[in-house]
Design goal:
- By secondary structure, the protein is an all-alpha fold.
- The protein has one domain (2-271).
- The protein has helices spanning 2-17, 24-34, 41-61, 63-74, 78-108, 112-137, 151-161, 171-182, 186-211, 219-247, 253-271.
- Helix 3 packs antiparallel against helix 9 and helix 8 (171-182) crosses helix 9 (186-211).
- The longest helix is centred in the middle third of the chain and has 31 residues, at 78-108.
- The relative contact order is 0.19.
- It catalyses: di-trans,octa-cis-undecaprenyl diphosphate + H2O = di-trans,octa-cis-undecaprenyl phosphate + phosphate + H(+).
- The chain crosses the membrane at residues 7-30, 42-63, 83-102, 108-129, 179-202, 222-244, 256-275.
- Its main location: membrane.
Length: 276
């Protein structure tokens, strides 16, 4: 039961943090370190599977939009073609970098020290870019509809998404910052980030799941996997809608401040040898 309880804790962390600009990977590394649910091949594979649960929440919440764009694409309509081409364009930078550096990232960047650095750098970038570009994203020329995103803007978002390969940076924060710089309004940048998460995370997860040896798993691990997937899905389902509602009214500075405070606390815990 203890491993199942740990799995539920990690799944809740994933569901809450996946689409917030605070880094789900960073938080799972840190919480996993605190509750001793890390380091093993199963723990690494488990984190990948529950990320797919969180992604499923986006598919469910935005299913009408996804279905509409699928139908539009097969009718060979401009809006449907443009939507899917934009996702492909925005996916390419991370796909190329991920395929090239995946093993090196897993070996050298998945630790508490790099998460602390990611929290600090990401927090500072969030404040600087929001201060300089969010006002422009509210301007007359800002993109306020997903259908109006240009191919060039999609590529800029995709390039910024590559920052998320550093644990602690946050895929959500990176893509939203890229959206601001590209001229997207905050809600559109966030929604595009959600849609972009589907191919990027399914592809990245599939790559890692393919490498895992499932023959070594025991019953409680299979149970943990199933429970964790469901918990991550349900938690993310609750968070995504509320996050979009928040972004329509409030700045993201509060998340940047949280990141910086978290980095200081984590650095203190590392210095005290509470975590490694």
């Amino acid at each position: 039961m203890w491993i199942i309880l740990k799995a539920i804790i990690i799944a809740i962390v994933e569901g809450v943090t996946e689409f917030l600009p605070i880094s789900s990977t960073g938080h799972m590394i840190l919480v996993g370190d605190l509750i001793k649910f890390n380091g093993t091949d199963f723990a690494k594979m488990y984190e990948v599977v529950i990320q797919l649960g969180a992604i499923l929440a986006v598919v469910v919440l935005y299913w009408n939009k996804i279905k509409d764009m699928i139908v539009s694409f097969f009718k060979w309509e401009k809006r449907g073609i443009k939507f899917w081409v934009n996702l492909i364009i925005a996916t390419i930078p991370a796909m190329v970098l991920g395929l090239t550096l995946d093993d090196l990232i897993d070996e050298y960047l998945f630790n508490t020290k790099t998460v602390v650095v990611g929290f600090i750098v990401g927090g500072i970038l969030l404040i600087v870019i929001e201060n300089n570009f969010r006002k422009k994203s509210k301007g007359f020329n800002a993109v306020r509809n997903l259908d109006d995103i240009s191919y060039g803007q999609a590529f800029k978002v995709g390039v910024f998404q590559c920052l998320a390969m550093w644990p602690g940076m946050s895929r959500s924060a990176s893509t939203i910052m890229g959206g601001w710089i590209a001229g997207l309004s905050t809600p559109v940048a966030a929604e595009f980030s959600f849609f972009l998460a589907i191919p990027v995370m399914v592809g990245a997860s599939g790559l890692k799941l393919f490498k895992y040896n499932y023959s070594t798993m025991v019953t409680n691990q299979w149970i943990s996997l199933g429970v964790g997937f469901v918990v991550a899905f349900l938690t993310a389902l609750l968070v995504v809608d509320r996050f979009i509602a928040f972004l329509k009214k409030k700045p993201m500075r509060i998340f940047a401040i949280y990141r910086l405070i978290a980095a200081v606390v984590l650095a203190g815990l590392m210095f005290a040898s509470v975590i490694k």
